[in-house]
Amino acid sequence: MDALFLLLPDVHLLDLAGPVQAIHESNELHGDFFRLHFVGLGPSVNCWQGLSIGELEGLPETIAPDTLVFVCGMKLTPQVMATARNPALVQWLKRAHAQGATLVGICTGTFVLGESGLLDNRDCTTHHQLQAALKDAFPKARVARERIFVEDGSVLTSAGVTGGIDLTLHLIWRLRGDRAAIDTARELVVHRRRMGDDQQISEHLRHRNHTSPLIHEVQDHLSQAFREPLTVSGLAKRHRVSPRHLQRLFRANTGGSIKSYLTSLRLEKAHDLLEDGKDSIEHVAEKSGFRSTRAFREAWTGKYGTPPSRLLRRHTPGGSDTTTSG
Q: Gene3D superfamilies per the record (predicted)?
């Protein structure tokens, strides 16, 4: 299977190197399956980080139906967007799609797909800082927020940077199976293979765009001690304020309650443990800081709409649950 990497001027190194390394490791671990090609509008490009990449192939006239075409992310400048509108490039991408290729937009590579009309009436995503710009540029696109990657038919898009690795691991899983994806992730020292519906920003980093030193201290403590039994009164005593004042200040700076913030931290930890597939639901609840398995199930179902056992079954050898109930 051919894997083509389209490199445009000011390409970001990690948006290229992450997917390339994942595919290369998959070949080394499980035999040659992907044939890598690096293509562009000219024989060389300069990366935004300063490296020059040469000996690029030209855009092929015909493409096999099972080809993967990666459109690597680049610095989003007016000059680069003008290149993305190059009629030859636009027609080539449309033709590749019509010939049955799977198109993969990494980070700002999604904008290039948009210029070719390939995002119209499709779900897609990009880096969280550029999602509004993507929606403004391509109003017919359905831009999904808080997603690592999105798959809509034969067009896949990702948040970029390390999200490109997650999307490539997903493709390896889809094309070569779970063992190939797991082995490749382990070789890349990716301890947790993120799914498409994972959030781009960790719960530990969310709601931090405020200037309250006290609330940052509280959040730091919650990030370290979320597995412990915590109470608002205990937090207030630790930080030498009244419980009422702490709750008011926390909501004013983060937009939510201490309880909901703590629950989000615990659910994120539970998500990691369920994907590891090594623990029962009961042990996941305990290791994540929930006071009971029932409380964990209620919190999980309230956020995700499905029982935690569904995710556990996906990541347990043989697809079986390790608990008797959902």
A: 3.40.50.880, Homeodomain-like
pTM of the model: 0.65
Q: In angstroms, what CA-CA distances link 308 with 48, 191, 260? A: 42, 20, 18
- The whole-angstrom separation of Cα 121 and Cα 103 is 15
The whole-angstrom separation of Cα 171 and Cα 106 is: 13
Q: Please name the fold of domain 203-326.
A: Arc Repressor Mutant, subunit A (1.10.10)
C-beta atoms surrounding 12 within 10 Å: 22
**10 Å Cβ neighbour count for 256?**
14
For residue 191, what pLDDT is reported? 54
- Decide: helix, strand or coil at residue 5: strand
Helix extents (H) in 120-257: 131-137, 163-176, 178-187, 213-225, 232-238, 243-254
- Please tell me if the domain spanning 2-187 has the same topology as the one spanning 203-326: no
Q: What are phi and psi of 277, to 5 degrees?
A: 70, 20
Q: Would you identify the CATH topology of the domain 2-187?
A: Rossmann fold (3.40.50)
Domains of the chain, residue spans: 2-187, 203-326
- Where residue 117 falls (left for φ over 0; alpha for ψ -120 to 50; beta otherwise) is left
Identify the band that residue 326 occupies on the pLDDT scale cut at 50, 70 and 90.
Answer: very low
